[in-house]
Specification:
Blueprint: H1 2-5, E1 14-16, H2 31-40, E2 47-49, H3 50-56, H4 66-71, H5 80-91, H6 96-108, H7 117-121, E3 124-125, E4 128-129, E5 133-137, E6 140-143, H8 161-164, H9 177-186, E7 192-195, H10 205-218, E8 225-230, H11 232-235, H12 246-258, E9 262-268, H13 278-289, E10 293-300, H14 308-320, E11 324-330, H15 337-340, H16 344-355, E12 366-372, E13 375-385, E14 388-398, E15 407-411, H17 434-443
Helix pairs in contact: 2-5, 5-6, 10-12, 14-16
The structure holds iron/sulfur cluster.
Length: about 450
Amino acid sequence: MSKAAKILPKPFIAYSRKNIINNRIVNTLPKDMVNEILAVSTVFPFRTNNYVIEELIDWDNIPNDPIFQLTFPTRDMLEKNDFDRVNRLLNLNAPEKKLLETVRKIQEKLNPHPASQMEMNVPVEDGEMMRGIQHKYEETALFFPSQGQTCHAYCTYCFRWPQFVGIDKLKFASSNSEQLVNYLTKHPEVTDVLITGGDPLFMSSKLLRRYIEPLIKKKPGNLSSIRIGTKVPAYWPYRFITDKDSDDLLRLFEEVVNSGLHLAIMTHYSHPRELKPSIAQQALQQILKTGAVVRCQAPIIRHINDDPELWATLWKVQVKLGAIPYYMFIGRNTGPKNYFKVPLSEAYHIFTKAYSSVSGLCRTVRGPSMSCTAGKVLISGIADIRDKKVFILKFIQGRDPKWANRTFFAQYDDDACWINELKPAFGETEFFYEKQLLGMKAKQPHYK
Ligand code: SF4
């Protein structure tokens, strides 16, 4: 704490499409590049901040720098035709309405609602949709506090991008903490709540307390763990050190731990650079001192982290700093997926190479895993069975708990990037769970 106390507070400055040009560093980029950022950010959300710009991006390596790719939209994230359409309208200074119409058409083509989140995960109680809650796996409920539906910076590959550009109109958000308590009371099967966003740690500590305190005091149902999904330790570490309510936040974490509930901060680190600044390391230490556990996860993304040595370094640094490597995900099939996608076979080889070069303490990590409609599916292996090259797949989590840990096989395909591009390996017409999944969908009252 003595070291952390010496750090001066840093005022948070957010940059978006509207003001990015005011940033003194961005202002020195070639004009074409700036125009491309402005064009692509009409379609995808764009938000970064002064810490990411000043401390994380290597401006001598633009546009290839991975943290630049992580937070700045670039031309190839859009299909050429779509980029040209938007760019033409901007050059013509077209009316806002016309621009928005075109942008919406492009956005709708980009699978804005992946993995049937809206259709299948939002519970209905007494005929009312519990907006703000998602309940996909029996033991875990997700809660989306409405004031936490933004982030200190946006990841260009974020699968929740539709929420940030207004397509979703914060469909998943709730400001009603009582609703969550009531839901947990009625659902004793839920042991874990994941508070997520956006980024719930974007909220003030006071607001966050409003959601968490009732859980600590009432311990509804069989609640035993609170998880908070966040990228703040990477994007704005000052949140835990010098922001005006940093101490309140850490105190709240301590209260959760002292109440007997397990607190897991599910931190999203995409690249080892995010853990390099001393302030980022100190932020992690501050969290750990509260008794919370930090588990780390990120998707594998082309242009950002598609490299085994990088993942090995990331896991090693996490362990050294006291955090637990948790997941390598496959990027979801939404938004600029063509730009970012890494085929399943390549992701598997990258994971395996990284995994085989680290010690057992790093091997708490699981992956590569797809979070798809049926559940979390792991690419567990590639093998030759009955003279056929196959993917060995395994459910880590299933929409039906009986699917968990079940292995199944798909035809090997060099190019496949998502489960819907895979076929059963041995002549079956569908994977074992598909009929049941269809039945589950049909039972959803709001499934369209
Ligand atoms: S921090 Fe998380 S929610 Fe926010 S943009 Fe990145 S991936 Fe999406």
